């Protein structure tokens, strides 16, 4: 069966909830290596079709390019081993970024998702932008500005290997309201 991507939320049941810490770490991870791709693990828990992303672990030693990122399986196994001995949290997926877009999974991303064992992946598209936009929820994703220098869009996808489908799922991050209320998306935080 040839894999295909569909946009589906199934009545809002498929949701990726992103904690404050995970949101901040995802954005910083993507900005740290911008114009190259970020890559790492999503930590949290799964309850049915809902994912609760509480934290992330960026792959610091990943080989990076402007259009791809790669991590050796030996290093991935080392990280998974350490996680199993340091925490009760679960690796629920992975994430990567697309500097300057596109706002969709590449053919390589789709192929890798069907080869891997994880069901959830997040994609951050990061753009240089000289305007300030509050964070908002749109088209199942969240998006907004970082200090009038960057625009970030966060999307989530779930893999259904049995049916050969990748579902685009709804991303929810309550912390966005605090960012908007304090106008952190455009003002510099004072030390």
Task: Provide the fold topology.
Elements: E1 4-7, E2 15-18, H1 20-32, E3 39-47, E4 50-58, E5 63-64, E6 69-70, H2 73-86, E7 90-99, H3 107-115, E8 120-128, E9 136-138, E10 141-146, E11 150-160, E12 165-172, H4 175-181
Low-confidence stretches: none
Computed over alpha carbons, the radius of gyration is: 16 Å
Mean pLDDT: 86
Tell me the count of domains.
1
According to CATH, the homologous superfamily is: Cytidine Deaminase, domain 2
Structural class by sheet pairing and helices: alpha/beta
Helical content stands at 10-25%
Largest sheet, strands/sense/barrel: 7 strands, mixed, barrel
CATH architecture: 3-Layer(aba) Sandwich
- Please give the count of helices: 4
Q: What gap, in angstroms, lies between the N and C termini?
A: 55 Å
Assign the CATH topology.
Cytidine Deaminase, domain 2
The top level CATH class name: Alpha Beta
Element pattern in H and E: EEHEEEEHEHEEEEEH
In short:
The chain has 191 residues and is α/β, with parallel strands linked by helices. Helix content is 23%, strand content 40%.
Q: Can you walk me through this structure?
A:
The chain has 191 residues and is an alpha/beta fold. It has one domain (4-181): Cytidine Deaminase, domain 2, CATH 3.40.140. It is 23% helix and 40% strand. It has helices at 20-32, 73-86, 107-115, 175-181, and strands at residues 4-7, 15-18, 39-47, 50-58, 63-64, 69-70, 90-99, 120-128, 136-138, 141-146, 150-160, 165-172. The strands form 2 sheets. A 7-stranded mixed barrel has the order 2-4-3-7-8-11-12. Strands 5-6 form a two-stranded antiparallel ribbon. A hairpin with a 4-residue loop joins strand 5 (63-64) and strand 6. The protein is globular. It starts with a strand and ends in a 10-residue tail after the last helix. The model has no long low-confidence stretch (mean pLDDT 86).
């Amino acid at each position: 069966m040839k894999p295909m991507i569909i946009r589906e939320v199934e009545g809002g049941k498929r949701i990726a909830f992103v904690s404050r810490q995970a949101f901040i770490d995802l954005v910083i991870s993507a900005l740290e290596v911008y114009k190259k791709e970020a890559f790492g693990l999503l930590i949290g828990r799964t309850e049915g079709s809902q994912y609760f992303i509480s934290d992330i672990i960026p792959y610091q030693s990943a080989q990076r390019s402007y259009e791809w990122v790669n991590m050796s399986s030996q290093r991935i196994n080392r990280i998974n081993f350490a996680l199993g001995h340091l925490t009760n949290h679960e690796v629920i997926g992975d994430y990567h970024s697309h500097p300057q877009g596109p706002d969709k999974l590449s053919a390589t991303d789709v192929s890798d998702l069907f080869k891997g064992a994880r069901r959830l992946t997040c994609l951050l598209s990061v753009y240089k932008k000289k305007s300030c936009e509050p964070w908002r929820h749109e088209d199942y994703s969240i998006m907004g500005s970082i200090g009038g220098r960057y625009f970030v869009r966060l999307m989530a996808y779930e893999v259904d290997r049995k049916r050969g489908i990748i579902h685009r799922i709804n991303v929810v991050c309550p912390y966005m309201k605090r960012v908007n209320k304090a106008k952190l998306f455009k003002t510099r935080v004072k030390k």
